[in-house]
Amino acid sequence: MEGNIYDVAIIGAGPAGASLAYFLSGFNLKVALIEKKKYADTPVRCAELVPKAITQLYSDKIDGINNEVSQMETYIEGSLANIIKSPGFILDRNIFVDFLIKIFLKKGGTYLNSSTFLNALHLDNSRQKHKSDLSVKLAENSSKKFLSANIHNGISIKVKQKDKIINLKTKILVGADGPNSAVAKIMNSFSDTDNKVQKKIPSGSCYIAGFQENLTKQTNYENNTKIFFYPHLACGYGWLFPKKSSINIGVAISMEAVKRDGLKNTYQRFKNELIKNNAITGNEKQNGVISGLVPVSGISPEVVKDNVMLIGDAAGLCNPITGAGNFNAAVSAKIASEYIKKALSSSSLNVLKEADKEINNFFNVSLSHGRSKRKMLEANWTTNDFEGLIKKTWISFRDYWHER
């Protein structure tokens, strides 16, 4: 067990987890990055658009930038509604994540891929007296004060790597394991009796469903992102994002629409609209298909709980309107890294709790605004003034920002 004692254990090696591992590397900390897949972030479940500002977060020149885009075009029922400056990059996100992991490894980090996080349990002094408790899953425990206020008591973690069970001990556990985060479920499994105000997840939809094809380019495209709204793309939108030699085309729609119309059928109807309007030829070669859920419920009620914290999608940091989460994942990892270093140097969980405040301060206004716009979208999708609704609820229009 001695070799498996860490300062920080990060569950999930997507953009959030790999970024946190990168930001913590080189600071004489023992960090474990744990990823259930053999190849992190594969397949990529993302449209891969990020703002240019992402490059300012990292001290190294990042790999994985496929193409640079300058403008966003928004179409409503096939007609161009506006164009705004929107400088950004289209990533090859798996290359970007792999780049971060390689630097982490080069600086002495431990990377456990093909490793499934099973459970975790705190190691406070009172529970050390009852060794049988170490076999109880954290998520099943009903202790009201679950984790110790002493950072050095730490957390015991079980990980399954192929047919082998690995036991780790860490001072801080970080969930970067996506929208269905196992670490988030662990945090939610116990209550804080000191918290007089009960925080609640916002009402409304928690997810929308996305479907995307990557197609080989048949014609030259301007380096603009294109966003499309049609009534049949219920409470969502379609997109066309150009890479250098291919394009990402996809849709994101409500779960109700998926049940009613089918996700793939809805995508095909959207693709036919693109062909009809000469946005694509229809003869492009398919390179790959992905689908998945996009969290749109907004920031989690609690991002830090004693020794445990959440970042990225696990913390609900996707924009509720756009579904964009890569940049927010990286920013949350940057903030988390600073407070983790301070908490470890001072052995104080109170310092770690400050990360919750800063992450909320950074994201809460924009994500809460996006959440209110999503609720407006969901309540009024069948309105007769479809164009007016989109102009009030999509980020490229001035009306979106009026009530903020």
The residue ranges in which pLDDT falls below 50 over 5 or more consecutive positions are: 125-149, 190-204
What percentage of residues falls in helices of 4 or more residues?
25-40%
CATH structural fold name of the largest domain: FAD/NAD(P)-binding domain
Average pLDDT taken over every residue: 88
The rough form would be described as globular
- How many domains? The number is 2
Helix count, DSSP H or I runs of 4 or more residues: 9
Number of distinct beta strands: 16
What is the CATH C level class of the largest domain, in words?
Alpha Beta
- The CATH homologous superfamily of the largest domain is termed FAD/NAD(P)-binding domain
Largest beta-sheet details: 8 strands, mixed
What is the straight-line distance between the termini? 51 Å
Q: Helix-strand pattern, N to C?
A: EHEEEEHEEHEEHEEEEHHEEEHHH
Beta-strand percent range = 25-35%
What CATH architecture of the largest domain do you see? Answer: 3-Layer(bba) Sandwich
Write the layout of secondary structure elements.
Elements: E1 5-11, H1 15-24, E2 31-34, E3 49-51, E4 65-76, E5 79-91, H2 93-106, E6 110-112, E7 115-122, H3 125-128, E8 155-161, E9 164-175, H4 182-188, E10 207-216, E11 224-229, E12 237-242, E13 246-254, H5 255-261, H6 263-276, E14 286-295, E15 304-305, E16 308-310, H7 326-346, H8 349-380, H9 386-393
Parallel strand pairs: 1-2, 1-9, 2-6, 4-11, 9-16
Antiparallel strand pairs: 3-5, 4-5, 7-8, 8-9, 10-13, 10-14, 11-12, 12-13, 15-16
Helix pairs in contact: 1-2, 1-7, 7-8, 8-9
